[in-house]
Design a protein that fits this description.
By secondary structure, the protein is of the alpha/beta class. The protein folds into three domains: 299 residues, Aconitase, domain 3 (2-Layer Sandwich), CATH 3.30.499; 176 residues, 2-Layer Sandwich (Aconitase, domain 3); 201 residues, Alpha-Beta Barrel (Aconitase, domain 4), CATH 3.20.19.10. It contains 24 helices and 30 strands. A seven-stranded mixed β-barrel has the order 22-25-26-27-30-29-28. A six-stranded mixed sheet has the order 6-5-2-3-4-21, sandwiched between helices. α3 packs across α7. The protein starts with 17 loop residues before the first helix and ends with a helix. The relative contact order is 0.10. The mean pLDDT is 95. The structure holds FE3-S4 cluster (F3S). It catalyses: citrate = D-threo-isocitrate. This is Aconitate hydratase, mitochondrial. Pathway: Carbohydrate metabolism; tricarboxylic acid cycle; isocitrate from oxaloacetate: step 2/2.
Length: 753
């Protein structure tokens, strides 16, 4: 195990450390003294402190040392801007950035890509130069979708990766625990802080039997989604095992893990097996495959390991499924789908079929899709509905171009889109139906929430395997079942489609296609990061000011929020995504969705300095201009939702000092601490009711000490002054964040000393 095997062919000097992993595991084994599941083995072998870490699933927080970080271009902007303000010369953990989210599908790959490069020039220039500066691998626009590139180049069995995208678990197809996180977590790991994760439960999915005919790997996750629903995987890792695993291709396992995000799972994993070895060899990583074989006993579950929950699926009996519309867990087997269409009055005519995306664009997927298209063409017929093909990477595109599948799919009627997310993330300039017009589309993607693909709330989006997408696109109807129904050939004779076939891996190897990777240069000192001072999409972050060492007196309450205040209420998405790299501009959405207890309205608060009612961000800016710090009063579970760090950066940027609530969602609470804010809770939650929106408060910051309460002195607009006790969860290290102004300031200070 002491061999030196590089983690990837694209970097030098970053080795897979099975030796260290196995040492950590033996420490944990002695402590737990029971058989371990594979998911546990991956996590525990990456513990920062295996001797002392608490290890109770569903309870303890694990401090972990991930092997890699990956960011897509939409989330990378703020992550890198924050990393820059830590003042470190390079990332401490191998990191890559992938340009895939900002390319809109309109007329086809080449032109769409050229247009995106033009529109997003300043973002791409910033990412390219900052990656070069801080030693980050940069995958240019056109290179492909983050998850496909990670599987092709970076994932390895037993590894732990975090990525700033919810479908990062795709790398579980190569036996890696790959977990989607927010930008603030990625920054920590880039800067060599341990990463915290609540020890997940593990749901086992035992696969028996064998896939055949029209049933594809996708159907396994479509079925699992139907069983567990969109919430059923929350706080858990889904671990597949059993004899059925061997009938799945590595990329098929990737598809299954990818879509595990739809049931809320932390991640999904498959045990290391021969199919993974074959894929590693085909992607020029035999050395990793051989190394993994020498560690194989730890790359699967122990005999007798017990799962927190167990599901069994017999692949020999599994039917193809179609899930949707509007939610990925509404699973219907193909044999019942026609009836469901009629019963629910889903629009029967199929308008568009879409294959590819990060979920289903492997060589196998494309080959099987092309085999169905060829069958149809041989009978003289083509796609009836519109049809798009999104290759997951330049390597896939070039390989299927060389081997003919692409030509077949085009002849069938397909429009080949850029190697990018495109319609999967709503980057689709769809023109064939009007907004509001009910219609059906079917894709091999993963997510089908209302409006996700084309921003039309009346679009019924279904997800299924690429095989069924092609078959239904051919028929132009949701009512077609290729397993039982016939079609008319060009002469009007009935025929039945043959079941799809296709190689898992290209017999002649992969064609890398165009060069789309930018390695960091040897000499990085002379690189300067490109950010135009007049840009409205990017802004260099100024370090926040450190604490002045005093109690804060006479603070206004910016808003007393009532009821649900999620990260969407605090920092809305939608059109604001454009400003993700510009803190000052995106701060104009701060708390605009929160409901003011004073009037029951959103985005309307009273400015206590002049008595005027105004928008929340405008009022905060006015206080800031006048040198007045402010607080927010919040209700239960404040900040639930996503891990979006903007929800913590914005109040800090606009001059907030403390957020005082009945309770916090944990990730948001930590994010606030990281940005140098004080997240505090009423020791007695009923005190929330005692405070009125126009009261002023004194906050005794000098009392901040681990495990000790703080005093909030309330000066009611009318009435007697009274004190309220506040609690907090700061530990020693986190108190430094507050004192220094932020976690990044603290890191920068440490880097200098
Ligand atoms: Fe995500 Fe789809 Fe892109 S799920 S990574 S948006 S292809």
């Amino acid at each position: 195990l002491s061999k030196k095997v590089e983690m990837t062919n694209w970097e030098k000097g970053h080795y897979i450390n099975y030796q260290k992993m196995s040492e950590n595991l033996s420490v944990v084994r002695q402590r737990l003294n029971r058989p371990l599941m594979y998911a546990e083995k991956i996590l525990y072998s990456h513990l920062d402190d295996p001797h002392n870490s608490e290890l109770e699933r569903g309870k303890s927080y694990l401090k972990l040392r991930p092997d890699r970080v990956a960011c897509q271009d939409a989330t990378a902007q703020m992550a890198i801007l924050q990393f820059m303000s830590a003042g470190m010369p390079s990332v401490a953990t191998p990191t890559t950035v992938h340009c895939d989210h900002l390319i809109e599908a309109q007329v086809g790959g080449e032109k769409d890509l050229a247009r995106a490069v033009d529109i997003n020039k300043e973002v791409y220039d910033f990412l390219a130069t900052s990656c070069a500066k801080y030693n980050i691998g940069f995958w240019k626009p056109g290179s492909g979708i983050i998850h496909q590139i990670l599987l092709e180049n970076y994932a390895f069995p037993g590894g732990l990766m975090i990525g700033t995208d919810s479908h990062t678990p795709n790398a579980g197809g190569l036996g890696m625990a790959a977990i989607g996180v927010g930008g603030a977590d990625a920054v920590d790991v880039m800067a060599s802080l341990p990463w915290e994760l609540k020890a997940p439960k593990v749901i086992g999915v035992k696969l028996t039997g064998e896939l055949s005919g029209w049933t594809a790997p996708k159907d396994i996750i479509l079925k699992v989604a139907g069983i567990l629903t969109v919430k059923g995987g929350t706080g858990a890792i889904i671990e597949y095992h059993g004899p059925g695993v061997d009938s799945l291709s590595c990329t098929g396992m990737g598809t299954i893990c990818n879509m595990g995000a739809e049931i809320g799972a932390t991640t999904s994993v498959f045990p290391f097996n021969d199919r993974m070895y074959d894929y590693l060899a085909a992607t020029k990583r035999s050395a990793i495959g051989d190394f993994a074989r020498s560690y194989a006993h730890e790359l699967r579950e122990d005999e007798g390991a017990e799962y927190d929950e167990l599901i069994e699926i017999n692949l020999s009996e599994l039917e193809p499924h179609i899930n949707g519309p509007f939610t990925p867990d509404l699973a219907t087997p193909i044999s019942k789908f026609k009836d469901a269409v009629a019963a629910n009055k889903w629009p029967e005519e199929l308008k568009v079929g879409l294959i590819g995306s990060c979920t289903n664009s492997s060589y196998e997927d494309m080959s099987r899709a092309a085999s169905i298209a060829r069958d149809a063409l041989n009978h003289g017929i083509k796609a009836k509905a519109a049809f798009t093909v999104t290759p997951g990477s330049e390597q896939i595109r070039a390989t299927i171009e060389r081997d003919g599948q692409l030509e077949t799919l085009e002849e069938f009627g397909g429009m080949v889109l850029a190697n990018a997310c495109g319609p999967c993330i709503g980057q689709w300039d769809r023109r064939d139906v009007k907004k509001g017009e009910p219609n059906s589309i079917i894709s091999s993607y993963n997510r089908n929430f209302t409006g996700r693909n084309d921003a039309n709330p009346a679009t019924h989006a279904f997800v299924t395997s690429p095989d069924l997408v092609v078959a239904l696109t051919l028929a132009g109807s949701l009512n077609f079942n290729p397993l039982t129904d016939t079609l008319k050939d060009k002469d009007g004779n009935d025929f039945k489609l043959s079941a799809p076939t296709g190689d898992g891996l290209p017999a002649n190897g992969y064609d890398p296609g165009r060069d789309t990777y930018q390695a960091p240069p040897e000499d990085r000192s002379s690189v300067s990061v490109a950010v135009s001072p007049t840009s409205d999409r990017l802004q260099i972050l100024e370090p926040f000011q450190s604490w002045d060492g005093k109690d804060a007196l006479d603070l206004p309450i910016l808003i007393k929020a009532q009821g649900k205040t999620t990260t969407d209420h605090i920092s809305m998405a939608g059109p604001w995504l454009k400003y993700r790299g510009h803190l000052d501009n995106i701060s104009n959405n701060m708390l605009i969705g929160a409901i003011n207890s004073a009037n029951g309205e959103a985005n309307k608060v009273k400015n206590v300095t002049n008595g005027e009612w105004d928008a929340v961000p405008a009022t905060a800016r006015d206080y800031k201009k006048k040198g007045i710090k402010w607080v927010v009063i919040g209700d239960w579970n404040y900040g639930e939702g996503s891990s979006r760090e903007h929800a913590a950066l914005e109040p800090r940027h606009l001059g907030g000092l403390a957020i005082i609530t009945r309770s916090f969602a944990r990730i948001h609470e930590t994010n606030l601490k990281k940005q140098g804010m004080l997240p505090l809770t009423f020791s007695n939650p009923e005190d929330y009711d005692k405070i009125q929106p126009e009261d002023k408060v004194d906050l005794m910051c000098t009392q901040l000490a681990v495990g000790k309460p703080m005093t909030l002195r309330v000066h009611p607009k009318n009435g007697e002054v009274f004190d309220v006790q506040l609690s907090h969860t700061f530990n020693e290290g986190q108190m430094e964040w507050f004192k220094n102004g932020s976690a990044l300031n603290t890191m920068a200070k440490a880097a200098k000393s």
